[in-house]
Amino acid sequence: MAGLADLSGGRGRHRRSLLSREVNGLMGVVRRVAVVATCVPVLVLAGCGDDESAGEPVELPSLSPSAASLPSMSESVEVEDLPADEVEPEEFVRAWVDAYNHAALTGDASRIRALSLDACVTCTGFAEAYEGAYSAGGGVTIDDGALPAEVSALSNATEAGGFTRVEASLKFNAGKSSEGDAEPTAYPASEDDWVFYLVLVDGQWRVSDVGV
Question: How far apart are CA 26 and CA 30, in angstroms?
């Protein structure tokens, strides 16, 4: 397995599948597709009546509807939970890059796993690398508070060999990585092109492989 600095620096240059190779690149932050409902207070205005009604108390309607009728502020739908016909392949790839960024910055790789097949060696390699680094006291910091990886461009999805293929041009920002008690290792900014292979599983997109 490549070192954490190599992963964070995005130094992989190969263009073919990594199903049988080591993982050696960097990627993604948590971009979520959220559906948030907002509850707006109701304003009740009382007008001026005639002399007979002046001074009489005005009964206001209740502003506390039942909990069942209020939208939940925590309701959200992730792209991996949506049918494929509601998520463009390019959008799914952006979500994967977001998930990778989140893993690189926090050690939480749960969304990489949620967006990927278990058989995706590259995806599992990324997840295990960052989970292991953070659990051992290491981690990644990016200069100037930037994201580890940013999507510069995405190709239109194409069909090839039973996969939906999306090419992503990525910019990897400079930063530092550390493993355990070792001194942080600085790495420079770089650019690279990665190829994502998507498949349908029960009508939903999943990343089957990433060529880096």
Answer: 14
